[in-house]
Amino acid sequence: MENLQTMKWFYLFYFLHSNWLCGFFTNNIDVAREGVAVDSVFGLLSVTLFLNAFTLGTLSRFVFQMGLSIFETFQTEALTLEVKSTQEAASPMAMTAAIEATSCPLLQHLAFLDFSELGRRGADRRAPAFSLSQPGGHPHTFNQLAASSLGQITSLTQHLETALAPPSDNNNSPPVTTNKPDFTGLRDLTGGAPPRPAAAPKRSEVAVLLDRLRGWLERRPLLGALLTEWPDSRPAAALADGRPALWVVSGLSALGVASLTEDRYGVAQRHLGPLLRALLELAAVLERVRRLAGCAGRGGGGAPVPRLASGLRAATATALFRLTATFGPHLRSLGLSDKELARLEPYRLYTEG
Predict the structure, then answer these.
(1) Which of 25, 85, 169, 278 minimizes the number of CB atoms within 10 Å of its CB?
(2) What span, in angstroms and rounded, lies between the C-alpha atoms of 234 and 165?
(3) What sign for the dihedral angle of Cα 222, 223, 228, 233?
(4) Which residues contact 79 (CB under 8 A, 6 or more apart)?
(5) Do the beta carbons of residue 133 and residue 89 sit within 8 Å?
(6) Quick check: pTM over 0.70?
(7) For residue 195, what are the contacts with CB-CB under 8 A and spacing of at least 6?
(8) Mean pLDDT, the chain, integer
């Protein structure tokens, strides 16, 4: 299916450039040129052309995906980082420092992956996350982990909300009219010419022509299909960087559940309210993405939303189920509003979904 969706670009390239390519081969290699012209409509409707393009495209895509999977399997190794705050460990291999290493995306991703594994490891591995700094007695480690993790969830939610917002059409907005002062007949005190009002900035003629050209192309049946943005393409682009958020949801929920029996100082409970609030917002926006993907699929077009959206919905729902089941009797003490508590009630009663 992915190959069929990308074949339109092959046909466009074939229609524009195949004539001189065929001429190059026939002039330099002893190959006879037969059949209809390749840059004609009948040339594009050739069954042989379609079968060759589909077979070679599928094969090349399979080889590329297989090579990418092998590279990811053998060249990427999960790291086991120190669960210490940056105040206690200056090493860049500390989890808190690696999570904030925006200059090294690979290290940052591996740190989030290791963070998601904290819930599946033993209590000894999680113990430093719930500890207090000495001297001082401050929960620096968990505060830094929670701040970076909640930032990932909030950032993804905001990007998805921006992608789901309808695009603003600036071309249809009414022109802004301004009352220009009339300086006719006035002279300045030195006897010079009257001052001229500042001219309003004008759009470049090239930009206006490009907008008109794009509008004309979008009204053409074939070219419009190539230039029109798919309904779910913007959410799919926003989800492209959502893998750390999936790891964060799993890691934070696991730490929250484990804190009930392992957190002796209560350093994690103060973050449960913001965590539940962030998870509810993410679940709501992911549901909108799912509905948009369903509408795009029923409409007969549109690229499918990546499978990461399904994984994020499942991870978010699992996190909400686990947290509400663990802290159900104490949800009202977490500073949540009545509306948020009502949205958590289906998860507490296992009726959501």
Answers:
(1) 169
(2) 10
(3) positive
(4) 93, 98, 107, 110, 111, 113, 114
(5) no
(6) no
(7) 183, 186, 188
(8) 77
